Amino acid sequence: MNRTYHDDYLQSCRQPGHFWADKASLIDWHTAPTQVLTQDDGQFRWFSDGLLNTSYLALDGHVAAGRGEQTAIIYDSPVTGIKRNISYAGLLEDVACCAGMLRGLGVRRGDRVIIYMPMVPEAVVAMLACARLGAVHCVVFGGFAAHELAVRIDDAGADVLVTASCGIEVDRTISYKPLVDAAMAKAEHAIRHCVVLQRPRCLAEMQNGRDVDWATAMAAAEPVDAVPVKATDPLYILYTSGTTGKPKGVVRDHGGHAVAMRFSMSAVYGVGPGDVFWAASDVGWVVGHSYIVYGPLLAGCTTVLYEGKPVRTPDAGSFWRVCAEHGVKTLFAAPTAFRAIRKEDPEAKLARNHDLSRLERIYLAGERLDPPTWKWLQEHFQRPVIDHWWQTETGWAIAANPAGYELQPVKPGSATWPMPGFEVAVLDDDGRMLEAGAQGNICLRLPMPPGCLTGIWGDSERFHDGYLARFAGYYQSGDAGYIDEEGYLFVMGRTDDIINVAGHRLSTGEMEEVLGAHPAVAECAVIGIPDELKGELPLGLVVLKDGVDRDAAKLNDELVLAVRQEIGAVACFRRALVVNRLPKTRSGKILRRIMRQMAAGESYTVPSTIDDPACLAELAIQLEALQLNVAS
Ligand code: COA
Ligand code: AMP
């Protein structure tokens, strides 16, 4: 890039229309937009009169440009022993057939399709096939239980679901079909067809009339061409945790997303056609959507699809093996993954067996990059280790070290500078701009750049109320932090009841609903407590109903099982503590923040509105005892 970061950043804030019109000209529109930024019912829209197709841009465009033989996907699956390269031409063929298969099942433009799959190439094929038809995919992470899947089927109103017979974890095979069957039975909205990829490890039972075998249907399908859609049409819905029990369906459009993905691949990651890009996440998360699938493919890179873990598949050297074997230039993972590797291989000895000369930069996001993890990576790998901050809602980095322009000196604990398009402000609770160094609510001035959420599926009020209502003219990120004198952004944690477990965003409210439904529980609170490996772990605090006398260990097991069955193993809910009472204000509001601070060993201020201060002393004793257990 010839322009400096500062040139671009200033232009993106002062003249967003000009800035993004230029970036939009880099993609191959079916009909180029004449309108760059418009407002529709108070909402900002990007490129509203443009027509395009994201699958065309990610596949057909590259094949037409002569890159058909280049590898699009490297599938590396240590849990099955399979390694396979898929070229852009091959991927295009599969996606076109899959689109034909879905069309044959009645899927049309605008229809929603649920994808509940492990990390197999067919998951990517199904996503791109939906995009090809203008249908809206809704990928659900495999670690979620049947209930969560049912909630998403209903909310999205999906008629077709695509799944696989099983997912493969480190030490076990998880049959998906019984889970999917249970979700379909539980959902009020009927799934007409369930397409099942049969994996040799475990064959699923099929139901006549409804279930469709992936391989048979693909073999019979006619390939279809990409359908041009409006830039503002939804490309996907991705559910993420909110503060209530009901997950939020974040909606992303076609046009803004394609432009932002292309821009971010060069500005944030400094990569282009032919580069090997590996985001070690899962297609069920936003990182997977943006940087396993769309970003790398739109930019003509080779993306690595890794079906394994950082450790135990088979060891803590797997990441380095994959980087060396496939010539990865850019590695992107959650800090928790490196904490897991460091724990098993503190001196990074397993990395020494591998030629990492092509690995240029390591990126981290999904949770705060703790300085010790940054230091460990820096010391052992001696290449730029870049923290960057973003959310499901934004789809790409709000703040990063701008590798595509010029790397800046790192300040451990900071995600560096805001990216072009994101005007970041730190506001106090009354909406006043805070000075450098003062911590407050991190907000983004409207309009947000292309690629950010365009709404919450089926609930426009929730978008407004949850993000825009509190600070006029700003999007409220839900994170707290500060900007220092040199413009570096430090993101310190959430301002709401969302916790981050192993880079996974979870709602404590949702867990509280599950605990509260247990017949012995009168009231409860779930808080995040610090964990060395996973960053945070949920801890349930439950008050029993009067007269109930339960064995604490047995109750713990029942509550743990309930969260596992209702939300899923991914919640990592392993501990519920019976307490006499919960600290509350006189108006009855549970003081979760104080409990969180107590559990983390932080100092806290007792509010004057507290109902009974003695309750805190009681709780402190119980938490202290627990902390000893946690540490041991
Ligand atoms: N399908 C089904 N179950 C899944 C699953 C999936 N796709 N992913 C995880 N699970 C299950 C696990 O088997 C585990 O079940 P268990 O409680 O029966 O053991 C549970 O969910 C928790 O999984 P996980 O958080 O992966 O814990 P772990 O102890 O197995 O592994 C780490 C620890 C740190 C290695 C792992 O959390 C990790 O790789 N983290 C990085 C996550 C990441 O990339 N996040 C990026 C989001 S941007
Ligand atoms: P998700 O929507 O699942 O991507 O989670 C987004 C949330 O994860 C953010 O709102 C932050 O709370 C946290 N997060 C992600 N990346 C970072 C980061 N680099 N530093 C601090 N927090 C982060």
From TrEMBL:
Gene3D superfamilies: 3.30.300.30, N-terminal domain of ligase-like. Residues 63-447 form the AMP-dependent synthetase/ligase domain. Pfam families: ACAS_N, AMP-binding, AMP-binding_C. InterPro entries: ACAS_N, AMP-bd_C, AMP-bd_C_sf, AMP-binding_CS, AMP-dep_synth/lig_dom, ANL_N_sf. It comes from the Bacteria. Transmembrane segments: none annotated. GO terms for molecular function: propionate-CoA ligase activity. GO terms for cellular component: intracellular organelle lumen. Residues 5-57 form the Acetyl-coenzyme A synthetase N-terminal domain. SUPFAM superfamilies: Acetyl-CoA synthetase-like. Residues 510-589 form the AMP-binding enzyme C-terminal domain. Belongs to the ATP-dependent AMP-binding enzyme family. PANTHER family: ACYL-COA SYNTHETASE, ACYL-COA SYNTHETASE SHORT-CHAIN FAMILY MEMBER 3, MITOCHONDRIAL. This is Propionyl-CoA synthetase. It comes from Halopseudomonas xinjiangensis. The lineage of its organism: Bacteria, Pseudomonadati, Pseudomonadota, Gammaproteobacteria, Pseudomonadales.
